[in-house]
Design a protein that fits this description.
Blueprint lengths: L3 E6 L4 H9 L5 E7 L23 E2 L4 H5 L4 E4 L3 H13 L3 E4 L6 H11 L5 E3 L5 H11 L9 E8 L9 H14 L3 E3 L2 H4 L6 E8 L6 E7 L4 E7 L4 H15 L6 E2 L1 H6 L4
Parallel strand pairs: 1-2, 1-4, 2-3, 4-5, 5-6, 6-12, 7-9, 8-9
Antiparallel strand pairs: 7-10, 10-11
Helix pairs in contact: 1-8, 3-4, 5-6
Bound molecules: NADP nicotinamide-adenine-dinucleotide phosphate (NAP).
Length: 268
């Protein structure tokens, strides 16, 4: 099988670095790496400052066209404003895209959707970890519970995380809301008071270096289950992102796909 050529936007970030570490040279070839305009290593080969064993040069988004030119797939994991600036350009030159960034406003998400949908095959996923995508499927089963059962989500992440609640908590919240009929999300019980029927709780903690923990509690009056997904390291997300990139490299229909599609049709 031929190697998938990838360009990484956000290569110097926490997740970007992990993707570079996990990138297996037999299956992938790194052909481009992009960081912010402020990065002090712009123009240098990645091997020269210890980012990866590669002679690819780190460039700013101003050199995006050149950096993505040889790529089969662009993996982008930066921040919402950067995605709104960069992804229309990537789609404009016809490159497949894997988007890992979270925390988009509704307008930012619509801008990205408008730029890629129907133009290039794209995967957008707030969580690339395989077991988390299994938890999404379990969450769908709550639609069969009787009405006295309720759900709550608690998520914990490192203190440097920009968005809160996490994109994953929102994704889980959407599934639970569809399945259990919630129409409001409560982030803080202290100010919201007693729980109402239409409310779903999503609480966040920002502490230390935690890569990501999501806990879903489903409780009735007399029993409950609690399911917790723990990412031991960012390798969980990096491996999933690379699996998504490999899958997408074989796709030609220019739609938006999810990690669920990747895992449901592994042989595509
Ligand atoms: N989908 C998932 O499974 C998953 C898992 C973990 C995290 N995430 C999400 O992924 C995103 C990145 O997380 P992180 O922890 O890696 O963040 P981070 O450490 O802050 O890294 C951000 C990266 O984006 C780069 N960047 C900033 N502005 C840019 C621009 N205009 N153009 C191109 N690159 C730019 C930064 O470059 P500099 O180094 O030069 O600043 C850096 O490489 C977040 O939204 C996070 O929530 C998703």
């Amino acid at each position: 099988m031929s190697r998938t050529r990838v360009c990484i936007i956000g290569a110097t970030g926490r997740l970007g670095r992990e993707i570079l570490r996990e990138l297996n040279q037999e299956d992938f070839e790194l052909v481009g790496a992009i960081a912010s305009r402020n990065n002090s290593n712009l123009g240098m080969k990645l091997e020269a400052f210890g980012l990866a064993n590669s002679d690819v040069r780190l460039v700013s988004p101003d050199s995006l066209n050149e950096a993505v030119k040889r790529a089969d797939v662009v993996i982008s994991t930066s921040n919402p404003a950067a995605e709104v600036e960069n992804l229309p350009k990537v789609a404009g030159v016809g490159k497949r895209i894997v988007v890992g960034t979270t925390g988009f406003t509704a307008d930012q998400y619509l801008a990205i959707k408008g730029a890629v949908d129907g133009k290039v095959p794209t995967i957008i996923s707030s969580n690339f970890a395989i077991a988390m995508n299994f938890l999404y499927k379990i969450a769908e089963l709550t639609s069969s519970l009787p009405p006295q059962y309720q759900a709550s989500i608690v998520e914990s992440h490192h203190a440097g995380k920009l968005d809160s609640p996490s994109g994953t908590a929102y994704a889980l919240g959407e599934i639970l809301s569809r399945a259990m009929g919630y129409s409001t999300i409560i982030h803080d019980r202290h100010s919201a008071g007693k729980r109402k029927k239409d409310e779903l709780e999503i609480f966040s903690r920002r502490v230390g270096g935690v890569p990501g923990i999501h806990e879903v509690t489903i409780a009735g009056p007399y029993d409950m289950i609690r399911i917790e997904h723990i990412a031991f390291t960012r390798a969980a997300f990096a491996q999933g992102a690379l699996l998504a990139a490999k899958w997408l490299s074989r796709i030609s229909s220019p739609q938006i796909y999810s990690m669920g599609d990747v895992l449901s049709h592994p042989s595509n």
